[in-house]
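Supplementary Note 3. Input sequence used for the single-chain structure prediction.
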Amino acid sequence: MKRIAIAAITVATLAGAAHNASAQDSPWLLRLRAVNLSPADKSTPLGGAGSADRITVEQRIIPELDVSYAFTPNWSAELVLTYPQKHDVMLDGAVIGSFKHLPPTLLAQYRFTPLGQFTPYLGAGINYTRISADHLLGGAATLDDHSVGAALQAGVDYRINAHWSLNVDLKRVNIRSDVTVAGATVSKVKVDPTLFALGVGYRF
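The predicted structure, written as C-alpha cells, is reproduced below.
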C-alpha cells in the first residue's frame, strides 16, 4: 500500500512537471495590451505655403491583441492586431474631420536570454494601415486609402508562472498619408505614431 501511494505521488509530480514544462516550452504566446497611440504630427505646409505641422491627429488609448510564435528560444514572429480605430483630425487645433485606420503589423523579434523572470526583446517589421471613412473639411478633402511602412519595437516580458506574464512594449510605426483636395495633394502628413503599451500575456 505504501509503495502504491509513493508511486501515485511520483506519477502526479512528474505529470505536473511535464505540464509546466510543456506550457513553458510552448511556442505560442497571446498578449492583450492597452496602447497609448501618440502621433508625431508632422505635415508639410498646406498648398506649399505657410508654416508646417498645422495638421495634427488625435492621441488615443486603444486595445491591441498580438500573437507570437517562437521558432527558436531567441527568434519569434509577432502579429499585432486591433479593430478599426477612429481619430479626429485637427487644423491649427480645430477639428476638421476624422478617419478610421486598421493597422496590422508583422514583426520579427529577437528575445534575449532571460534575466531571472525578465525577458527583454527587440523587434523590426512592416506595418500595413488601411485608411477608411475619411471625412475632412466637410468631404472636400480626402486621405490616401492605405500606408505601408517600417515598424520598430522594444519591450520586456515579466514571467509570473509557466502560463502568465506581464508585458511592457514600445513601438514606432511609419504611417504616411497625403491630404488631397479636388485630386491635388495639398499636404503630406506623417502620423508616425509612438505606441507605449502595458499588457498581459498567456502562453499555451
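The chain has a mean pLDDT of 89. Residues 27-203 form a domain with the Porin fold (CATH 2.40.160.20).
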